[in-house]
Amino acid sequence: MHVRRIQRQVFCELLRHGLGPDSVDISHVDRLSCDINKIGGNAMLWYCRFRWHQNTRADDVRRRVLEQHDAGTNKPDKIRGWYNLAGGGSGFLLVDTDDPHELTDLLQPYMDLVSWDVHAVYEVTYQEMVDQIRQKFQTTT
After folding, report:
1. Global pTM?
2. Over 24-42, what HEC string results?
3. Average pLDDT of the residues in 6-27
4. C-alpha span between 18 and 5 (Å, rounded)
């Protein structure tokens, strides 16, 4: 295992246990590359692509977001990122949860306004992918 991967795993483990970045030297670790799946946790990362239904208006979506936020059902601590595509009407969320029922509870209140296409995803850094490919070719030749 590469030293950088071990350092990232240690850093992510510290974050998971509530220890701040001051606990270790993290100048060489990308904070956003922490994926609990890689360090033995249970959280899954979900790619949730949305597209507005044909008759959905921007104000409908805005109103629903505020209603769900005020009701406490948007779970902002689970949303790693919310991305809108240029031009409007579509985008995607990245949601961290180990419970697919919790994911459904988050997405269902919007189903009359948008369609969802949901996939479990995991992060692989570019260098890790290149290393895996090289290793695969070395073992097959």
Report:
1. 0.65
2. CCCCCCCHHHCCHHHHCCC
3. 49
4. 20
Q: Please list, residue by residue across 102-124, b when 16 or more beta carbons sit within 10 angstroms of its beta carbon and e when fewer do.
A: ebeebbeebeebbebebeeeeee
pLDDT for 50 beyond 50: yes
Please give the distance of CA 92 from its chain centroid, rounded to a whole number: 10
Domains of the chain: 1-41 (no CATH), 44-121 (3.30.70.1060)
The pLDDT of 106-122, averaged and rounded, is: 96
Residues 43-60 have a mean pLDDT of: 94
E runs forming strands in 42-123: 44-52, 79-84, 90-97, 114-121
